[in-house]
Amino acid sequence: MNLIKTPILTEKAALGMGKGLYVILVDPSATKPAIVSEIKHQFDLDVISIRVVNSPAKKVKFKRIPGFQPSRRKAYIQLKEGQKLPGFELPKQEKAKNQES
After folding, report:
1. DSSP string, 41-71
2. 50 neighbors 79 (Cβ within 8 angstroms)
3. How far apart are CA 95 and CA 3, in angstroms?
4. Kind of pairing, strands 72-79 and 21-26?
5. First to last CA, the chain
6. Which of 29, 30, 60, 91 would give a disulfide with 3, using CB separation of 3.0 to 4.6 Å?
7. Distance in angstroms (rounded) separating the CA atoms of residues 66 and 63
8. pLDDT at residue 88, as a whole number
9. Within 10 A of 73 (CB to CB), how many other CB atoms are there?
């Protein structure tokens, strides 16, 4: 079962990437040990610590039309120094790498 859904690539998350802290969206039923084993199995990386945050659903309005943002479960994953999660680079970083080559 794939517990890892997508990376969260925001400015706040990008600041942590330099220190080895990654933010990912995970399945609502995922537990800390299951997420750690999934990271180890898929990417062969060592996880130092993990924090899980449940964000509740929010009521929002868009052009006076009521709606809601769904609830989310985020995992903050601290990796061993020098390790990186593949595919978690920001578009600006990818462009810079392509220009250097």
Report:
1. HHH---EEEEEEEEEPPEEEEETTEEEEEPP
2. no
3. 29
4. antiparallel
5. 37
6. 30
7. 8
8. 72
9. 18
* DSSP SS3 for 90: coil
- Token duo for residue 43: 């990417």
What's the pLDDT band for 29 if we cut at 50, 70, 90?
Answer: very high
Q: Which amino acid is at 64?
A: R
Q: Is a pLDDT exceeding 70 seen at residue 21?
A: yes
Which residue matches tokens 């969260």? Answer: 8
pLDDT in tens, 48-101: 999 999 999 999 999 999 999 999 999 999 999 888 888 776 666 666 666 666
CATH no., domain 4-100 = 3.30.70.330
The residue type found at 80 is K
Write out the two tokens for 47.
């996880």
Instruction: For the chain, give the number of residues.
Output: 101
pLDDT value of position 86: 82
